[in-house]
Amino acid sequence: MTPPRPELPPGQRDLLSLRQSIDNIDAALVHMLAERFKFTQEVGWVKATSGLPASDPARESVQIARLRALAEESHLDPAFAEKFLNFIVAEVIHHHEQIASTGAVPVPVPDPAVDPGSAR
Amino acid sequence: MTPPRPELPPGQRDLLSLRQSIDNIDAALVHMLAERFKFTQEVGWVKATSGLPASDPARESVQIARLRALAEESHLDPAFAEKFLNFIVAEVIHHHEQIASTGAVPVPVPDPAVDPGSAR
Q: What domains lie within chain B, and their CATH numbers?
C-alpha cells in the first residue's frame, strides 16, 4: 500500500488517500460484478433450456425488498440500492434474451490499446 | 449455508443454488457501495471546504480507463464497467453538489415496514 505523500498540503493529501480507498473498492466491485454475471449467465442457460422467461418479476421484487433492507442496515440510500439492482437486472435480462434467441452471449473483445497488467 | 433442496427437479435445483450465490454477491456489493459512498462523502467535504468543483473530468477519465482494464482482466464487458462507473459517479456528483450548496447530504430515512434483521 502506498501511503499518502506527506509533502502535499493537507486537503490534497486527504483527497489522495480517499481516492486510493475508492479505487480499491472499485476494483473489488468490478471483480464481484464479473462473478455475478458468470452466475446470471448460468441462470440464462438454465432458463433457456427449461423454456423459462428471461425476466421474473416475482424474484425481482423479493430481491428489491432484501437489498433495500440491507442498504438501510449499512446506511446506503435504499432508493439508490433499488436503482442499482434495476441497472444490473436490465443488463442481465438483455443477456438472457440474447441467450434465448441466439444461444450465445456477447464476449468482451480485448482492446489491444489497453494493457490489463498496467492497471494493477 | 442452505444447500439446494434435493427433491426439486434438476433445473429448479440449479436455479435455486445459482440464485443463492447471486444473493450473496448482491449483499457484498451493497456493503461495498455503502463503504464507497462513505469515502466519496468525505471527498465531498474536502472539495467543498477547499472550494474544488464537484466533478473532476480528468480523474474520471483515469478511473474509466483503469476499470475497463480491470473488467477485461476479469472477463466483464468493459463497456458495462464504464456504464457502471458513470452510474455511480452521477450519484456521487449529486451528493457533492448537495454538500456544496446546503452543507448536508441526504440521510436515508428508515422504513418502519422493513425489518433489516429479517433480511439476514
A: 15-104 (1.20.59.10)
DSSP B103: S
Chain B: nearest CA to A43, how far in angstroms?
Answer: 6
Residue numbers in A near B51 (CB within 8 A): none
Q: Are A105 and A44 in contact (CB under 8 A)?
A: yes
- Would the CB atoms of B21 and A27 count as touching at under 8 Å? no
What span, in angstroms and rounded, lies between the C-alpha atoms of A41 and A105?
8
Contacts of A65 (CB under 8 A, 6+ apart): B114, B119
- Compute how many other C-beta atoms are within 10 angstroms of the C-beta atom of residue A102: 9
Which of B65, B88, B74 has the alpha carbon at shortest distance from A32? B74
Cell numbers linked to B40: 466519496
What does residue A64 show for φ and ψ, rounded to 5 degrees? Answer: -60, -45
Q: Is A76 exposed, middle or buried (0-12, 13-18, 19+ CB in 10 A)?
A: buried
Condensed to tens digits (0 to 9), the pLDDT of residues B49-83 reads: 888 888 889 999 999 999 999 999 999 999 999 99
- Residue B90 at interface with chain A, using a CB cutoff of 8 Å: no
Q: Which three cell numbers, joined as nine digits, stand for B75?
A: 472477463
